[in-house]
Fold:
Amino acid sequence: MTYLSVQLQDGERWRYVSAAGHTVAWIAVHGGQLEAAETIGSGQMAVFKDAEQAIEVVSVGASSFVLGSAVKHPHELVMGHYSVHTSKAALAQGEAEIRRIGEQLRAQGRLA
Structure:
């Protein structure tokens, strides 16, 4: 798996070529805006259908984003609001643990 944090200036072009065997890739923009095949704005995520092709973006204003690429997971994945798991049971267990920790932190006054 490759996971990169990238910052670009206005008009700067950036190109990424996945490692051999990586078939899935995504970009999540957390500042500014990128132009690729479509516009990807702050708070948005783009998933690339063919990660074996180079990914090219141009920054509109200063931008920052993370990019990930990997070998496709051999199993179906279950998506939560902020996590990904390999089964509904694992997702439920993970979300229950997050709730438990949140309740504990609130009880300690460490979380509002």
